[in-house]
Structure formats: C-alpha cells, structure tokens
Write a structure and sequence with these properties.
This is Hypp6039 protein. Keywords: Membrane, Signal, Transmembrane, Transmembrane helix. This protein is α+β, with helices and mostly antiparallel strands. The protein is about 35% helix and about 30% strand. The protein has 2 helices and 9 strands. The radius of gyration is 25 Å and the shape is elongated.
Length: about 160
C-alpha cells in the first residue's frame, strides 16, 4: 500500500512538473514565417511532454522515439514542418539547431529560437512610455473635472 501511494505521489509530481513550463511559447527567427508564431499548451501530453498548439492549428510536440521536438499539423505524425533533436521537458528549454522543411528534406536554421511568451515582448520602450504618458494626461484631465463637479455640487446644495 505504501508503495502504491509513493508511486501515485511521484506520478502526480511528474505530471505537475510538466504543466509548470511556459503556458505559451513563441517560435521565431526563421524566414518560414507561417510557423513563427505562438504555441499554447493544450493540457494534453504526448511523449511525456506538454503539447502546444498554434492559432493556425499546428502542433508543437515531443516524439520520444526520435527524441525530437516537432512542429506539424498532425499531432504525433512523423511528417513535420520542422524539428530539433533535444530531450528537454519543456519546449522553451530546447537548445541547438532547428531543421526546417525544404523541398524533399530539411535545412538547418540556427536562427530559430523558442522562448517563453507573456505577450508583453511586443511592446517597445516607446510604446510603454506612450501608454504611461497617456494615463498621466488622462488623470491630469480628470482631476480638475472631478474637482469642478465637486465644487458645483457643493455650491448647488448650499445655495
């Protein structure tokens, strides 16, 4: 019984560690722009690793027998658009060279990277400064308006 409980706890910890990776990753760097997008965890696993899916419907998944992370339109298929040989638990931890489909084979593309994605990376420093300035101007305009409305209300009740 104790052995069963130990195995149950171990399996739960392993499953939770898989789901602790980045919920969304971004593949970038290649001229194959259709595949350079964000991929979000589906909640499924394949090859004891999390499965990710893009908004276009492509999968990012791990294939145990090949020890590769793959991008393709069919989960588990050996016909893929790109792959990297890496045994990392989560896609964002992969290191090395991705191979991208080119004609009847694959071509190495060292510029491809997988990173954890929060969505904030697209905002430049200028964009963030613009948002902050906009908020400050908005508050600066609303404060006098609020004061005016308060004074008007006070003068209306007293006289």
């Amino acid at each position: 019984m104790a052995r069963f409980l130990f195995l149950l706890v171990l399996a739960t910890l392993f499953k939770n560690s898989i789901q602790e990776g980045c919920q969304t990753v971004r593949i970038s760097g290649s001229t194959t722009t259709a595949l350079m997008t964000t991929y979000t965890m589906t909640g499924e696993t394949f090859g004891d690793r999390p499965v990710y899916r893009s908004s276009r419907g492509d999968y990012l998944f791990y294939e145990t027998s090949e020890t590769t992370w793959n991008v393709g339109n069919v989960l588990g298929s050996t016909t893929v658009d790109m792959y990297i040989t890496d045994t990392s638990t989560c896609a964002e931890d992969t290191l090395g060279t991705w191979y991208v489909a080119a004609g009847s084979g694959f071509s190495p593309d060292r510029s491809v990277t997988v990173t954890c994605w929060t969505g904030l990376q697209e905002l430049s420093g200028g964009a963030i400064a613009g948002i902050v300035i906009g908020v400050l101007v908005g508050v600066g305009l609303l404060a006098p308006l609020g004061r005016y409305m308060y004074i008007k209300k006070q003068s209306g009740t007293h006289g």
